[in-house]
Structure formats: structure tokens, C-alpha cells
Amino acid sequence: MANARVFKKLNQICEGLYSLSNNIQIIILCNPDKRINVQTDISKMGLEFVTLSYKTKSIIDAAAIIKNLNFVITPDTSITHIASTFNIPVITIHENNFESYQLFAPISDINKTVFSKSSDNLQDFSVVSLLDAAKEIIEIEENIANNF
Hints:
- By secondary structure, this protein is an alpha/beta fold.
- 49% of the residues lie in helices and 13% in strands.
- The protein has 6 helices and 5 strands.
- It is globular and about 40 Å long.
């Protein structure tokens, strides 16, 4: 990760997700150019339920991974669109900019967005709000599974 603040938030999110459901495997997708740094940061977390995805060579490779996930958390609009294409539940992290959000909002049947306090960056989003959104999605998914 580029900075300690981002790594700290990622660690809080991963641990928070595990506290919501200990039957979880978190797969981190990243730019292929950042794999070494991201793998180092994941190793520092020491969380056995967090792994780096296999190396993707194209957006098609990333889409193949996303298609097989239970839900996605992402600040990346391309990942949001891919998850929406497969109707995968998604939590997006978005800057506090409604015009931008209208262009890039998720359209999966089950979706939540956590907004940063800032209108031009994502640094000030709330991990607590993100985990609250994740809890809602996990509960929705469990209710759907229990009704089958």
C-alpha cells in the first residue's frame, strides 16, 4: 500500500469483516504493478483469511475473479461496473460528489455506497460505515439463502 493510513484502514476492514462472519475469505485485487508491495502489506497483517488474488493480466482476468465472489468492496469504478454486470452485491467507496456518483453508481440489486467526507478524494470514508454496510449485505444474503 502506498501509505500507512491506507494499510491501517484495510486491516480494520479485514478484521471487521471477519468479526461479522468468521466463515470468510477475503481476496485482495490490485494493479499488477503493485503486487509486491500489496503482498508485503497483506503478510504484515498476519490474517490467514486474507489473500492476494492471482496475478491478473487483463480486466477479463479480474472479471473472472469477481464473477465468483459473494460480494465486492471497492473504490474502483471499473470493478463496480463488473460486479454490477454479474449482479454481485457491492459496496462502493465514493467521493462526496453526487454528479460523479450518478455516473458511476453500482446497479447490482444489492448495493451500498459509503461516501468520503471529501468531494475530491476517498481518504475520509468511515470504516465503521463500510462495516455497517457489509453487515447489511451479509444479513440480506443469509436471509436469501435461508429462504431457499
